[in-house]
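Field reference: sequence -> structure
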Amino acid sequence: MNVTTAASGPTDRRAATLVMACLGVFVAYLPVTTVAASLPAIQAALGASTAQLSWVSDAFVLPMAALILTAGVFGDVHGRKKVFQAGLAFCAIGAGVALCAQSVQVLWAGQAVAGLGAAALLPTTLALISHAVPDHRERGRFIGLWATSLLMSLAVGPLIAGVLLDHFAWRWIYLLPVPVSLVAMVFAARLLTDSRAAHGRRLDWPGQITAALAITAVVYGVIEGGAGSFTDTKVLVALVTAAVSAVAFVLAERRSESPMLDLALFRSPAFTATTLVAMISFLGLIGFFFVLSLYFGMVQQLDTLQAGWRLLMVTLTAIVVGQPVGRLMHRVSARVLITGGLIVVSGSLFSLIPLDADTSFGSVAWRLALLGLGMGTVIVPMTATAVASVPYQLAGMAAAGNNAFRQVGGALGPAVLGALLTTRAVDTLPGHLADAGLTGGTQQTIVSAADAGGLGAVAQLNLGADTGRVLAAVGDSFLDGLRLCLIVAAALTLLAAVVSAVLLRRPREAPDRPIAGSSLRQDSRRTAGDLVR
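Structure field:
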């Protein structure tokens, strides 16, 4: 179909935009679960500690969270098609670097470049859809398909990783994004129609610098604090830097004539609610998937493909639920769907607390399917409500803002829950070793290794005849940490449900006409204020 000429019909243009947007978000999110499912293999091959494994995940999520707002502005100013293609290029380059990595540090670099590409893809895909489909009711159906593609990438990631790791080294999980990104770039050049914001937006460098510094500093502080101590000088400096940078970001955005994230958007209760829900729930859920993948590998001794089939229960259920939920949005309020879905997610997390080393697949499967049911009920209305709560001319900024806060939560999730897991497991390890009859110098050697390099470091020790008892004690310690993480993740999800129930309201229909006025700040203040019912 030729959508680059005036002769092309609106239906063809929208179909091409939808296909490319779905492919873009698929490429953006594919590394999330392929890497998560491969963490035990990466840890074994590179000798990484738990903190270093956290950075493998966060090296991808951190630039995505820090730069997603800037990518949205770049798309508004220079054209969303160009930013979309640049995002695909960065995803291919990052995957290529990770594919050749011989150390965990090089792997971090590849993940960071791929995260930059994902930061460019996420806001531009939603903005392209919003531009092609200005009617917010019809747009909800398109966003539902976009969300399905996101979930599909999360679903197939563990299976791809499992098949590859059964036959090849862990690095080959990065092969697929390279050709997919390059092919998508070729098709995007012909099929996509470019679009820009109509209000003369400019790049907001003070806002970008302070936002990136705040996000980077807080994630670094949490990871290093969990790996060592929150009283370390470098951790305290990082956390103070994060707080100061956050205040500076707010001041910069209030004064800017062309803000990266206009704070007036938060006058819309629907935008505020969905943004907070996205950040809080993803903090718990992404952190949960991080520790769950370690549970399958370290405690149940499953290979990556077996773990992938279990994780598929979550995403496959969410995909099946997502489409009917998208149709229900016209009859059931987003408040009911999001709050109800979060309560289901929280209940499923609480139900996983009794997990142990011998828990069967059937016992885990229904709990993970319940988790997917809740996620599928939340993701589509959460994304659609955030975009529909503002005029479509501001959809790019709203999509970028919602995604940015979501990714901040996703970046903090492995850091927070990884720190809790390590701290709790190391604290309880001496007791489990004593119960196994291991005391004295042997116990001290094992505890010191775990304290320095995480539980995975214990497997590298030469323990002779004690190996079986030691690994059983380590598994019991891990389960103590896992249960604490499940309680925290479930509590965070309940908090998100409370936020949704209290703040979320059905927004008034946002005006689709161009917003009059001399500045974006004045326009968005007027329109966002009009959304409050």
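Note: The longest helix spans residues 395-435.
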